[in-house]
């Protein structure tokens, strides 16, 4: 797992000197600089969920897009979990954004501002291509991926200036840390129980199978 993340206050402070996220540089409403009506169309924060919401096992994943372990989970473990549990209706997985830095925060914003039909695809792309976009100029790379997904430059810029949405992400992150004492990412909670094993396939399948057995599934 990646090291314990910055506190909410330190994260916001750390963003203030960087150009990537104007949203965190001011922490003042951005609606005044946007066209009238744009704020009304601004997306609200809701974590991404895969699978049947009524599945017997619910998995919460707290992840950061700049976390190498999170990317490996999405590349090496999640595909099997999707085949074995999620697509089979035995489990669902909800990704709760837990950004460790401003770059991860920018990606979180993009995955929630994008058209709903491509949001989850963008999640997959950012984790799958992490080594590529993180080694380039981050804002240009993130913007490029969003543009290829169909967002206009104006939409990307407005998204990265969306302080209301960004604050909602930080608030949810703080709530998760307070409730679950997140010591690193990725962290998982399976049917209300914090998973203390690794994110590797064997550990995850054992934990999910145990939760299924407890529910009679």
Structural account:
The chain is an alpha+beta fold and 217 residues long. The protein has one domain (8-20, 47-212): Glutaredoxin. The chain is built from 10 helices and 5 strands, in the order ααββαβααααααββα. The chain has helices at residues 8-15, 22-26, 68-86, 102-113, 116-128, 130-134, 138-148, 153-160, 163-180, 201-215, and strands at 48-50, 57-63, 91-97, 187-190, 193-194. It has a 5-stranded mixed β-sheet, sandwiched between helices. Helix 4 packs parallel to helix 7 and helix 4 packs across helix 8. It is globular and about 50 Å long. Residues 21-213 form the Thioredoxin domain. May be required for disulfide bond formation in some proteins. Residues 1-30 form the signal peptide. One of its GO terms (molecular function) is disulfide oxidoreductase activity.
Main sheet makeup: 5 strands, mixed
Question: What is the number of domains?
Answer: 1
Mean pLDDT rating:
84
In terms of DSSP E residues, the strand content is 5-15%
H and E string: HHEEHEHHHHHHEEH
Inertia-based shape: globular
**Structural class computed from helices and strand pairing:** alpha+beta
Q: What is the tally of beta strands?
A: 5
Question: What oligomeric state is this?
Answer: single chain
Low-confidence stretches: 4-41
CATH fold-level topology:
Glutaredoxin
- The CATH superfamily label reads Glutaredoxin
Distance between the termini: 30 Å
Strand order of the largest sheet: 1-3-2-4-5
């Amino acid at each position: 797992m990646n090291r314990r993340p910055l506190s909410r206050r330190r994260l916001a402070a750390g963003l203030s000197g960087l150009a990537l996220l104007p949203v965190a540089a001011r922490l003042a409403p951005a609606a005044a600089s946007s066209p009238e009506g744009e704020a009304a169309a601004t997306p609200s924060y809701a974590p991404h969920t895969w699978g049947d919401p009524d599945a017997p096992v619910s998995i919460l994943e707290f992840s950061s897009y700049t976390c190498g372990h999170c990317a490996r989970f999405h590349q090496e473990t999640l595909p099997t979990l999707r085949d074995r549990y999620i697509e089979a209706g035995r489990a669902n997985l909800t990704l709760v954004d837990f950004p460790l830095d401003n770059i991860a925060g920018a990606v979180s914003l993009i995955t929630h501002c994008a058209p709903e039909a491509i949001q989850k695809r963008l999640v997959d792309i950012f984790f799958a291509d992490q080594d590529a976009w993180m080694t380039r100029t981050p804002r240009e790379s993130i913007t490029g991926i969003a543009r290829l997904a169909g967002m206009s430059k104006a939409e990307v810029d407005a998204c990265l200036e969306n302080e209301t949405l960004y604050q909602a992400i930080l608030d949810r992150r703080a709530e998760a840390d307070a409730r679950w004492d997140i010591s690193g990412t990725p962290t998982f909670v399976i049917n209300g129980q914090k998973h203390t094993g690794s994110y590797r396939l064997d550990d995850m399948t054992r934990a999910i199978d145990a939760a299924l057995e407890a529910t009679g599934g």
